[in-house]
Records
---
Amino acid sequence: MTQPTPQSDPDLTHQTPSVTRRSALSSVAKTGLALSIAGSLIGCSSSAQKRVQSKGGSLGDPIPEDPIVHSSTPSPIQTRPSTTHSVSSNDSLSAIPSFVIPRAKWTSSGPKRWLADPMTGINRITVHHDAIMPVPSGTYADSLRRLQLIRKGHLNNGWADIGYHFAIDPSGRVWQARPLELQGAHVKDNNPSNLGIVVFGNYEQIRPTSASLRSLDQLLSYGMQRFGVPISRVYTHRELRPTACPGQNLQAQMNATRSSNGRLSTIIRSTSPVLLA
């Protein structure tokens, strides 16, 4: 894939202007974001106290949008996935569906392939949150920066690239992250043949938006059909390792959508019922 010419980002490029109140506040904000990212990168992959999950509410109903996550006019949004997307098991691992924003849109840097193992096949899928505060805005520019900063943190861990294969923002955009032909780095001791999806936000503290949940269900259904992954092998991080990830609110939604009458099960029942086994 031809990489675009890198563009400078004033939020990521080192600058040395005279100190003003605005620049000082900006510096504090950035430092706080960087510290929260560093903490979250540890929290998602290590042991954490599990909070008691609430069983209330109607099974299968999405959690209402959290008002502090709402963004008024996010732009631009790629074509949303639908239940009628074309799925081919013969596609090479380098192929991505049309509803996914290509990696080249947010970085011109490739993975350090010598540090990664090849993905020899996909037979399971794992869902994460990024555990980062402050709350993601859902704007296109904010999602670009968030991907770049997560990748920087993962590279600082000595990894080949950002650890997840796909990312979903609060506005429902689906982003390509690590190329699928490379094994991910998202569940310790469980990365072989495991497709990793991260949803932006800390879902111990906030609730996922309806847009992000719709896109997550459709991306999961796409991955299940393309790779023949049964619903019994669609996991959350905490179901494979002792961690709070993907947060109690997203965990509740994953429990609901995989239930017999949940949205993911309903999609799969109408397209590939054999995967409900």
Note: The longest helix spans residues 21-45.
---
Amino acid sequence: MVLLTKNSAATVRESLESAFKQTRKPDEVVVVDGDSTDGTLDILRQYPVKLVTEPGLGFGHARNLGVKESTEDIVFFLDSDCHAELQWIEKILPHFADPQIAGVTGQTRLWNTDSGVARFLACVGNRVDMPTRHVYVEIAPTMNLAVRREVVFKVGGFDETLHRGEDTELTFKVAQQYKILYEPEAVIWFQGSPTLRTATRKCFRHFIGVGQLFAKHGFNPSFVRFNLLIRGIILILATVSLFFLPWYVPAILFGWLFTEFVYKTVKMYRHYHDRCVVYYLVFFTFWSLVSLAVFYGMYLGLKHKQKLIKPKSFPH
């Protein structure tokens, strides 16, 4: 099992407890710490983990380091703000008897329900009413993922140049050659982003990563929902049109945006019956502009692509 931490003193103990209390015990727990300064290390030293320090080179580098330090044939990934239900490993392992299955993921449920922001993001991220049957998926999050270690090597590991989305890209590459199964009874509870500030920072890095993925793999709808990006572009066009075009042009554009905002908010409330949907106002305005970071990510991705002479191998 590979667990990433950095200043996770508030949550990492529950993560580790859930790992060591599994009905099927993990063979090992490798913790990759990003030089924590908040007491995380004091907690980690209370558990029989293999502790590795990561110098802050990004999530991709940290995950690759964890895989390299692991000796398990099947590597389980768990985040330090998540905890696993006690049968998590037990529910996943039997699926690897099928040689065509290279990865298994499962349900992710929000435990931080006191946060309206976290609840809202869980709603828009389709993590509230998740499927209850087995399906094959193309991408999966590392907060709930088990994958064959040899397959990680074969597909080149996690891309360390990505700002975020390294798990999206890895599982996308795995799914091109193998199968990734969704097991609904393999459940992880996650914290989510508790504040608007945290959520916005993650959103910004996410869209930079999406742009990098577009530059590397082309425009794939599996990487992102295009509606937020489209709203950001229309919002900018509507604002610019106020100064250069007849009044009815910005009126139409702003009217369309407002209508879509009301429609989405009402639709979400009727589905979830949760007042957290009011955060759609922020999602509709500020975050739609933040999503334009995808173009910066595309620039970074294309720039990196031009520098590559040949792909780097992923060392065992």
Note: The mean pLDDT is 91.
---
Amino acid sequence: MLEADLYAPVKAHLEAQGYAIRGEVGHCDMVGWDAGQETLVVVELKRSFGLAVLYQALRRMAAADLVYVGVGVPEGAKARRNWDAQLPEATRLCRMLGLGLLSIRHNAVVVHADPGPFAPRKFPARRGRLLSEFNRRSGDHNIGGTTRRPRMTAYREDALRCARLLAEAGGPRRPAQLRDAAGVPKAAAMLRRNVYGWFENPSRGLYTLSPAGAAALALHADVIAAQAISPAGSSAPPQRKAQALRARPPAPRNRPGSPPSAPAS
């Protein structure tokens, strides 16, 4: 499929929406004008979706009311599977950038997104999990790109707290004792699962430190020191900073697209 093969079906689609179409106007692949609504639309055509066509489309936003990216749906089973897997994120990206997205296959045009302001959907549960993980850590113990030791997480820090107390106790302890002394509410489950192999269970309801646990305390001595300064759960949640949002003009009424639909089979 050539880029020229995409032109005719997209032109017919736009003309059906009331636009007069001209090809290769300035640096634009396709320009449409609706005199009644005074709406200028630009479509950049590419055989495949990627940064090149996004860069082109973003440059057109300074002059046009509506800007679409039009890409050809590849032939072949493997290529189609790759496109179908890419499509949700490609659609989301175009919406975030204020662009529209069209796909063309067998002279049929499918509208996946129309241009317009983007307001991401918020998930309070995800925010809560992220903030909980942040606050439960005693400090910044991970260096991006390093593989010298495992990534430090809040769960691993809680396991280190339990391991440190077992080392200091010098003998078996019950989960409830570790829970209260370490400030780890899920200590019992952590000891039972023993994800890292740091604990041993010599008798029912009692736990001791394993050789692997002792080695972990030595490896993460800096984390143990930080925990002494910043006990579990002591970090206060960061204040939300107010951000000024730049107002965007309302999108024109007459859009050449339609509600997002599934790709043509």
Note: The beta strands are 20-25, 28-34, 39-46, 66-72, 100-105, 108-113, 199-203, 206-209.
---
Amino acid sequence: MWPGIITTHPLKPACPRLKAPIVLAHGLFGFRRIGLGPLTLTWYFRGIPGILQAAGNRVLVTRVHPTAGVARRARRLGEQILEAFPDEPVHLIGHSMGGLDARALVSDPAWAARVLSLTTIATPHLGSGIAEFAKLRVGRIYTLLERLGVEHQGFLDVTPGAAAEFNRRNPPPVGLPFFSVAGDPPHEEVSWPLRRLDAALEELEGPNDGLVSVASATAFGTPLPSWPVDHLRQMNWLSPEVSTDTCPHVARLYAEVVENLAHLDGIEEIRSGRESA
């Protein structure tokens, strides 16, 4: 069995079944799972892979370096997809910086030809003012980390300046179905670790999810309806036990993303056309 592919699905099917596998790419500080031996304490996408597979989907949860730059993370993302699905096209869903990793991957024409769709969730396509603020405040720490040989390029790659250069070098491939989702929760629904950041980013960039603004998250791709949940709850962390209109169960939101992919017309023909071009 391939590492990272979720095979248990005790949850009731809640979304469509796609013919091609779904690849979930995590963000900065991300991981596939935290556990002790066979005991899993938590997943980055908490409970989400099980929901998707309960509907019959094949799901690969990738694991790349948590603080490396986009270029290194994208290479590892591609390696894991090839290990799991060497001869199949896939749907990519990237959360936060994982969306930048996926964009860097599909900037390679060979990968653009075998990826059926790309959906980014709360990805800082234009960077984040929070990352810029951190760079200004703790820049000396980054210098120290560099001297110690500790990988930290990921923190710098999500600043607005780095994002502008990334976008210049990695325009979205023509013909690839590309969707983007922003987080835009009511202020009172932002989880406690992000409340101050939400207020600060509101002044800098407007509506946001506590780490990434709506404008940045939807700068590329076809925007899908915004999610009324913050950056942490998009991973199903700190979510309330009871779903409400202002804070729905996150599994339902991911199911809606898959529903959008299921309604793509002629997606196999699109891929075949790109391969023969």
Note: Residues 129-147 form the longest helix (19 residues).
